Amino acid sequence: MDEVIFLEVLEGDAVHSRHRLDKLPVTVGRGYANDIILDDPKVSAEHLRLERREDGAVVLHDVGSVNGTFSVEPWAALKELVITPDTRVAVGDTVLRFRPRNFVVEETVVNEAPASARERLFERPRAFALAMQALVATSFISERVTQFQKTDWGDLLLASVVPVGLALLWAGGWSLASRIARRSFHFRVHATIGALLLLGFAVAPPLFALFSFSFSLGAWLGSVRTLAMLGLVGWGLYWHLRYVTRWSAKRVVRGLVIASVGVLVLTNVTELLGNEPFSEALEFPRSLLPPVLRVAPAHSMDSFFEDTKPLEKKVDALTKER
Amino acid sequence: MFSLLLVAALAQGPAAPPEPSASPQAPPVLPVPDAGVADAVVPPLPVASLPPATHELFRRIQGRVAQVRIIERRSGTKSSIGSAFFVSAKGHALTNYHVVSDLVLHPEDYTAELDRGDATVPVRLLAVDVASDLAVIQMDAPVSDYFKLEEHEPPQGTRLFAMGNPRDLGTTIVEGTYNGLVRDALYERVHFSGAINPGMSGGPTLSGEGGVVGVNVATMGNQVGFLVPVVRARTLLDRALEQSAPPDPAALMTSVKDQLMANQQRITDRLMATDLPKQSLGEYRVPGRWSPFLKCWGDTPHDPETPYTVTSYQCSSEEDIFLSSSHRTGVVTYLHQHVESQKLGAMRFSALYSTLFSQDPDAVAATREDVTNFRCKSEFVDVKGLTVRAAICLRAYRRFPGLYDLVLRAATLNATTHGVDTSLTLGGFSAENARKLARRYLEGLSWTK
């Protein structure tokens, strides 16, 4: 063994404390007369001693401890042991490990977290202001357009301000997490991400309604919409997490993909198992927009009633299911 | 809103002491004639110049009416009750289909028995007529005393006596007036001005001479009752008497299915034979009152605050066929909503119009045991130059293959701030007939400009 060795006090797999043994012999135990003191009640006051033998090898001696000293692999009580690199020894409830100075450590992990390299779009101060303004404007317009009762300006005002409040609250939560994990609030960034998320939520329904109406798209648009919303949420969470954790991008993506698949499976578990719950609902697209937005051609009466014929087979198949 | 069917009331503990409703307190108007007449095969009733006193009639015929109890096999006790009356010496009795529907649909779970006052006797189901809501049951023991079915309808205003066992309170007689057949009804009914209550279903309604002129079936409350005309009862009884053996459950189901098929064919033929009248609604023309059996209503709520108006026009047969307590069929109903706004812009109008289009009329009552889920097909359709967004939804009957409920939804798309949203519900039709009717209906939509 090398001249200088290290004694490591382990805690699980991690190192709790590390002692450089420049000079031997070294005594280990609970008493204050020792070179290395272990605060383990099952360790004796004078427990063991490390000495260098004449041939240069480091030898461990149990100096008459109450509970004994054990080699870990294989587990065996010992009085004396020649220390080799990575030897582990148990005393009381404590595990000790010996390492030479020439121990080769793992390669440095490349830091992927944003140091201050490329500034991201939503890190710019103006992005925050723009996102907030866009959110207010969009909320106002969508509330105004979908509200066909007598105009209530109070409601309208509230509807435009509430999303901004929500975005700020949401950002507050993430900021605290960032502060705890990364020692920096990143409040503006989190608020911008939150605002963009809400903007997506506000814009998606009219967009999908427009698609559904203009091209007379069927029920499959619903699944596209679900996926799109899930993608949006995934995008938001990804960036929030990047500012909160030090995880690599791959790890975050992996986590989010697993989570989304989990959510999809859990919310559609009945359909996946093939037991559709009984419902009297009529499932067909309901959006009606101004006639000029219609792109899909109108079918003739003949073709419409011809196209509805397969319904008969579909529902007949349902009767046989159970 | 119509036909509160007398679903045989769940047996309830007697709230009041059961007292015979015909209490002999009033002094008899006529002297009591021979009391032993009950033993004769068809006992001659006294030919009274005036309707006899109610208590007199009651005393004579009390034994000819019995309570039907539907017994749930596992609990071994009654799950619902109704009334029945004997019509032959061989123990044939008439009642309502809706009293014994559980026997038809769940023969493995239910049996029936008659409570004759002193004893309960098991009965079997011989024949049913679902459209008229009638059933023939039979018990093994012969009966000495039974009713005669009248040959003819009595004149309007005749005093009649409805008998039955309302709410399990004991045999009761209720006086009322014959008011003829219900005008323009889809299913033939006699209008009886008298109180018919749950549990009296299946009981007879008698003329003063004691002949049966109808079978109690439904009430609308407030002394408005309905009877099945005696002609229907006679037809069904004749059919039951012709049978050599009681039918097995499968044969009964088949007969119900055939009747439903025939009934929907009858309605379809009736509708297809007439031109669909046009009703004008704003600048549109929409299907009007297609047939006299449809009752149509319209309304426009006026609210000065609302920046739009919705005028609704709806027609409904207001009658249905009872298949089970959870399942109705034989329904035709439709609703038009004309929406117009001067104040809303195109986008806000679209939001309003989409909201209306998203609201569907109530489906015909059914559960997952009875029907499948709906499947829909939606397209833009050109109805003679008028573009509509239309959808057809269909669901199948689980017990009666070949029968479907259809819902047609359509909204016109020819203008930015007005339009007509319409829905048609057809309950219990063959797919072919339903499509035929839906097409005729959709063709009834047009724009006048």
UniProtKB/TrEMBL annotation, chain A:
InterPro entries: FHA_dom (IPR000253), SMAD_FHA_dom_sf (IPR008984), YscD_cytoplasmic_dom (IPR032030)
Coiled coil as UniProt keyword: no
UniProt KW keywords: Membrane, Transmembrane, Transmembrane helix
FHA domain segment(s): 26-70
Source species, domain of life: Bacteria
TM annotation in the entry: 157-177, 189-211, 217-240, 252-270
Protein name in the entry: FHA domain-containing protein
Source organism phylogeny: Bacteria, Pseudomonadati, Myxococcota, Myxococcia, Myxococcales
From TrEMBL, chain B:
Keywords: Hydrolase, Protease
Pfam family, one: Trypsin_2
GO molecular function: serine-type endopeptidase activity
GO aspect biological process, one term: proteolysis
Identification of the protein by name: Serine protease
